[in-house]
Input
Amino acid sequence: MRTLITFQNKLVPVYITSEDNKQPTQKVLRILNSTLELKFQKGKSAIQKCLNSLISIEIKGSEAILHSYSENDSLALSLY
Output
């Protein structure tokens, strides 16, 4: 499933693998938004660098894989 979220005033596509995820989609998106905001404000520079160049997010189970313009800056975050 594909949906869009607004993060730092830009639309970011979020791809959710529904068979891996046991939580309702709305709850997952709320958790994702709060985690991204927290990491943007208080995260280390590597996370902030990834968030500044974020192009898409893929959610598999309880992990969010953040894809950025540079493959080297992409990373995975635990949501739960």
